[in-house]
Amino acid sequence: YMTLLCVVAMCRAVPINELFERASQHSDKLHSLSTTLTQELDSHFPPIGRVIMPRPAMCHTSSLQTPIDKDQALQVSESDLMSLARSLLQAWSDPLVVLSSSASTLPHPAQSTIFNKIQEMQQYSKSLKDGLDVLSSKMGSPAQAITSLPYRGGTNLGHDKITKLINFNFLLSCLRRDSHKIDSFLKVLRCRAAKMQPEMC
């Protein structure tokens, strides 16, 4: 759907502010799914897991310098915001595959629901990526720049139940954090495309 809209936009049939609106809707859904999944996991997360789970600074995307709040994001250029959003989205291509593979055998009562939502997240992520690729091409080369943030966590999240749950939860928490950033950046871009006042974004 997103890809179709972008193809139409290339023919100048869809205003760019409407495309940003669609992209924002996709990013909002992506973040909403990651938040719901985190809550699902927390409902059956072992207490020891909260103690030994890696800190956010260990996320594979933590080296990317990003605005810490909306006020800072409003000071960043459109091209740089697009580049940041695309870099974060690209960085989750491989980890989402790992999450999907691991969810199929996750030792959790809501395993089936978790697996289905991960699949849904992969679809939204791909659709959003396709849309941002076209949007960035309309914004010039700075917006097309992508910072490489390779995932080196491996495909096996653990052999025992506790380790697998902890690593799965950690990776998902990183995704939730990054999906929130992507959503925030795209909302700022949507506001600018619609020429809204900063306080309304």
TrEMBL record:
The keyword Disulfide bond applies. One of its GO terms (molecular function) is hormone activity. Keywords: Disulfide bond, Hormone, Secreted, Signal. One of its GO terms (biological process) is positive regulation of cell population proliferation. The keyword Signal applies. Pfam families: Hormone_1. This is Prolactin. It comes from Oreochromis niloticus. The gene is LOC100534523.
